[in-house]
Amino acid sequence: METRDLNRHLDAALTRLRQKTGVSVAFGGPVEANGTLLLERFVGPTAGVLSGLSVYLGEGLGGRVVAMGKTAVVNDYFATRAITHRYDQLIRVERLRALVASPVVVHRRPIAVIYGAYRSHEIVGGRVQDTITEEARSLEQETVVAATLAQAREGWTDADGEITSMREQIRAADAKLRRLLASVDNNEVCAALQQIIRTLTDAPGTDNPARGSLLTTRESDVVSLAGLGYSNARIAEALGLTVHTVKSYMKSAMAKLDAQSRLEAVVLARRAHLIP
Asked: Boundaries of each HTH luxR-type domain copy (predicted)?
């Protein structure tokens, strides 16, 4: 994900975090390849001393969560022995006391960290920890989606000789997004993924995009993955369904499309622009 896009997603996540939890300030930033965290994004009033700070791997709360790869909490920043105190002076200027931080991890590498902090003597409970962890997971999913779309769009041109390859890229991206959608339980992220999937149907290389949908979302998922050669068992695994349920969706889709086989269902669905 480009820096501009990551910053936009970070700002949105930090805004939601502050709205949902009531933290005094929410902040965070990207993690460089060497594990150094750069504090660049802030939502809420600050003294400004943390802006631009480099938090080194293993140092402070942010450096600790980068090293651990999971959410961590300190209810009294200055008294805790769970972290190093390299940044105490700056934290004191900001008058922060209770902090929670969560890493954004993609392909096993931290790419960002988000924090929530209170200036009062708050105890950071399970609800706040769950909320920040959920926002971090949403950022991870958004990053994967952005990378998938970027990969699919590489090399898109109007040249006739590249249309087939381009369509295959679109279909592969569509399949990845449908598998990802099946694992997401955040309504906002689900809605965003569904919109992206609809956009792919209208992407370059598909003629006369569909104006409506004959199939349900799940039926489209099953037919789309079948079009990539997935067996029923593999479709079930990808979408978190049972094989019996996959067969049921396929049977329903075939009936709606008036298809006599899985292959014909795929061909007819593509012809109707219901799948890429």
From this structure: 208-273
